[in-house]
Amino acid sequence: MNYLRDVSALHRVFGVLYRDVPSDERRATLSRFLEEEYAFTPDQASLFASTVLGQNAEGSADCVRTNGLRVTGSWVRGEQEGNVGGWLSTMKETWQFDIDLTYEHKIERYDSSITTGPFFQSSYSRPKMSLERGIWAPSDNILDQLTLFVMSTEGVARSMMLEWIEKERYNYRACTINMQRFSRE
Fold it and tell me: What is the per-residue pLDDT across 103-140, written as a single tens digit (0 to 9) for each?
């Protein structure tokens, strides 16, 4: 998938947009650029432009860079149900946002059971994993709630919400992604 090289390249593209293109034409210009240079479909390009240029104001290029650098890294959450010595199900979900504007979203599940009796003991473990890779970009929002553009390698584009949790206390190390709490790994 051909795409912008990193957060700095995205910042430079936005800098040119804000310097050379009137405010009311920026989204359309960015959409055309993505279609022509990176073979985005019109729908993908439009979603990218409307998501990333949400604020569309002076200084947005710097906001995109700042948000990109804050989001970059590995975010993880887990769940567990059942009880040890019987049935146990665990789940680990990870979002890895890289500086080169690629991402990996992985969900790993492990279901296990242990049965004991006077004459035998049996156990099983059933691992499952789903993996999605693609490209991402942060919005130009200056609030604690960001919209991210993500597009899988299969071309499925969507926006998702990331909200910082108590950023003063956790220093951008805790957030919610699509309303689920994650911590920096």
Answer: 999 999 988 776 666 665 656 667 899 999 999 999 99
Each residue of 2-22: b (16+ CB within 10 Å) or e? ebbebbeebbebbeebbeeee
pLDDT attached to residue 143: 86
Name the pairing type of β-strands 102-116 and 87-97.
antiparallel
Q: Which residue has the tokens 């049935």?
A: 87
For residues 140-168, average pLDDT: 93
Contact 76, 96 (CB under 8 A): no
Closest listed residue to residue 66, CA positions, set 151, 143, 169: 143
Model pLDDT, residue 119: 63
Residue 72: Cβ within 10 Å count: 18
Question: Which is nearest to 47 in space by CA: 27, 71, 69?
Answer: 27
What sign does the dihedral 65-70-72-78 (CA atoms) show? negative
Kindly tell me if the per-residue pLDDT of 70 is higher than 90. Answer: yes
